[in-house]
Design a protein that fits this description.
It is built from eight helices and eleven strands. With 284 residues, the chain is α/β, with parallel strands linked by helices. The longest helix is centred in the N-terminal third of the chain and has 24 residues, at 82-105. The protein is globular, with a radius of gyration of 18 Å.
Length: 284
């Protein structure tokens, strides 16, 4: 959960003789940085950390390690959007997952479990997920963020929840290394975090998340959209992908179904467009 930064689908590229679409990128100063293909090749071929991972990831962690663990900190001074953000998250969940929530409310199914990926200080969990799901696990690589999340959700000053809903696990792990427990989650929620993943790690993570989903589970993604191609943030080492870029990853690379997508309303006009996606593997 990071700050919401300041728009004819391509044919499936797996078909013989059809080349995958190419997305052109700019950095945050407006300079051309080539295509997604050349950009990620350069990242993969570049310098590595002590574990053999591209320095792309270390640079992002170094940036967030210096950010204060508050709503304004993780949202880049836009903490005031949290209420509107949570409201529309709830609306989108009802639109795409309402039948499951209704079954739980009627006692027709057991406890619902969500995973908050890239959870930051637990802002999305505290404002939204924990009100909809019986249990929530949080995954976050920045140690002082996940420690703050645990204190807010389970510490001595945490709110008392008469409905029994609770945060259960706090995983201090990078998303590219997260291995969900099999068949645990009804929903996995990503918000303002997958821009830190390379395309290859994005695809690998989402495929691993399938293992963690229950049979009727769903994956939700809420991210900034560039107008076209992608935009590189050179400060925090992240990529803002366009809607077409996301659809390419979901539908053409993963081969999944995009159940629904729509844009967030009533955010400050200087921010990128923010879009919510509900996705899942295609059902046979």
């Amino acid at each position: 959960d990071r700050f919401p930064k300041t728009r004819r689908r391509p044919r499936p590229w797996s078909v013989s003789l059809i080349m995958p679409p190419v997305f052109k990128g700019l950095d945050d100063s407006g300079n051309s940085i080539g295509t997604n293909v050349s950009f990620w090749k350069a990242v993969a071929a570049g310098a590595k950390d002590g574990n053999g991972k591209p320095l792309w990831y270390k640079k992002g962690l170094d940036y967030w390690d210096a950010v204060e663990p508050t709503d304004d900190g993780v949202l880049g001074g836009y903490g005031h959007v949290s209420e509107r953000d949570a409201m529309e998250n709830g609306e989108f969940l009802e639109e795409t997952f309402g039948s499951v929530l209704a079954e739980r409310a009627a006692g027709a199914r057991g406890p619902l479990v969500a995973c908050d990926c890239g959870a930051g200080i637990g802002r999305v969990t505290t404002s939204f997920l924990i009100h909809k799901f019986d249990e929530v696990d949080l995954v976050e690589p920045v140690v002082h963020f996940i420690e703050k999340a645990e204190a807010l959700l389970n510490g001595p000053n945490a709110p008392t929840r008469t409905n029994g809903h609770k945060a259960v696990n706090f995983f201090a792990l990078p998303l590219e290394g997260f291995e969900p427990a099999p068949n645990r989650y009804d929903a996995v929620w990503f918000q303002w975090c997958v821009g830190h993943l390379t395309d290859d790690d994005f695809v690998s993570l989402f495929n691993r998340c399938v293992v963690g989903l229950k049979p009727d589970g769903m994956i939700f993604v809420k991210e900034n959209n560039a107008k076209e191609g992608f935009v590189l943030d050179t400060e925090d080492s992240s990529l803002t992908r366009s809607h077409k870029y996301f659809m390419f990853l979901f539908e053409d690379v993963l081969g999944w179904e995009v159940v629904k997508h729509r844009t967030q309303k009533d955010f400050p006009s200087e921010l990128f467009t923010v879009r919510m996606y509900a996705v899942r593997p295609k059902r046979v």
